[in-house]
Design goal:
Layout: E1 4-10, H1 15-28, E2 33-37, E3 41-46, H2 48-51, E4 57-67, E5 83-89, H3 99-105, E6 119-125, E7 129-137, H4 140-144, H5 161-170, E8 178-181, H6 188-195, E9 199-203, H7 207-219, E10 224-227, E11 242-246, E12 252-253, E13 257-258, H8 259-273, E14 279-284, E15 296-307, E16 310-319
Parallel strand pairs: 5-6, 8-9, 8-11, 9-10, 11-14
Antiparallel strand pairs: 1-3, 1-4, 2-3, 4-7, 6-7, 12-13, 14-16, 15-16
Helix pairs in contact: 1-5, 5-6
């Protein structure tokens, strides 16, 4: 695989989440190397097809040149065709050049157009100047169309597609690997995993949720098996490479029973299913419940405050 140099601009989520996702990417694809990173963006030696799967990537551009000062800019390195230029400050430059001044430094006379350009040029400052060509812009509208209220089967308690995709990336899996969501609900995590070319297996104790998840997967043309079992009774026939789940929260319910007993049974089942070295990515509301994960080591915990009375923890566990 041929790796190139890319600048990834982030969409504004917590820096802990961004760093965790990038670290997981570099572990899943060792050929990808993080060369520079801050809260706004990162410089990565990698492959565009992998980088464009990042949940928190807003825009990705391919670096064609880097300079210590704009006086050294060379417009001859740009492809043929019309373009327009945008300035991006990932760190603060000593001089705040206008986009017109930066375009002039690239000798762009007669080539700049905002109507049907052939490509977009970014002049990115990240401790030095990088001239790059935009290769990917996240389609926010397309992702929002996968939100729970717009699926055939709807539940108000459902993860946003961006964060479901984030969890898939934290799982250190690659296309073709099999992921299990043992509390799949309406299937939001399974949808994002399937669209990322993972094989999917789901389960839910509620038959209503199982039927709804199957309907949602069919709507997105995703194939996968969904079991209907309580976690302690779950028998998965497939080989599973990672477990990804938004765990039940609250104290108890007729379906899941006592929450402490549920988590104890869940982590015992996860340990039974996963081989040593494999990952389990979960969301919990009470980090104290992780004490039942005795067969796992905690890789990282990302705290996300939902509102004043609810904090959720994205947790990556590694099977011992």
């Amino acid at each position: 695989m041929r790796c190139l140099l890319f600048l990834v601009e982030f969409s504004g989520e917590s820096s802990d989440g961004v760093r965790a996702e990038l670290n997981a990417l570099s572990e899943s694809y060792p050929e990808s190397k993080i060369l520079w990173i801050n809260q706004k963006g990162a410089l990565i030696d990698g492959d565009l097809s992998n980088l464009s799967e990042l949940a928190f990537a807003r825009r990705i551009s391919e670096v064609i040149a880097s300079y210590d000062s704009i006086e050294k800019f060379r417009g001859s390195l740009l492809p043929q065709g019309k373009f327009y230029l945008r300035r991006v400050n990932l760190t603060q430059p000593a001089e705040n050049y206008t986009e017109g001044e930066l375009a002039d430094a690239l000798l762009a006379y007669g080539r700049v157009t905002f109507s049907n350009p052939d490509f977009i040029v970014l002049a990115v400052y990240a401790d030095k100047w990088y001239i790059s060509i935009v290769r990917y812009i996240r389609d926010t509208k397309k992702m929002n169309l996968r939100r729970s209220p717009l699926r055939p089967f709807f539940s108000p308690i459902s993860l946003h597609p961006k964060f479901a995709k984030f969890m898939v990336n934290l799982s250190r899996t690659r296309p073709g690997d099999t992921v299990l969501d043992p509390f799949c609900g309406t299937g939001g995590i399974l949808i994002e995993a399937g669209l990322a070319h993972r094989k999917i297996v789901g389960n839910d104790a509620s038959l209503v949720m199982v039927k709804g998840a199957r309907l949602n997967l069919k709507y997105f043309s995703i194939q996968g098996r969904i079991y209907n079992a309580k976690i302690q009774d779950l028998k998965v026939e497939e080989h599973v490479d990672a477990i990804i789940s938004d765990m039940p929260y609250g104290r108890s319910s007729p379906v899941i029973g006592d929450i402490e007993s549920l988590y104890e049974a869940s982590f015992a089942k996860f340990a039974e299913i996963l081989e040593s070295g494999r990952y389990c990515v979960i969301i919990v509301s009470d980090s104290g419940l992780l004490s039942y994960a005795t067969a796992f080591s905690t890789v990282e915990t990302i705290r996300v405050k939902v509102h004043n009375s609810l904090t959720r923890y994205y947790v990556v566990l590694r099977r011992n």
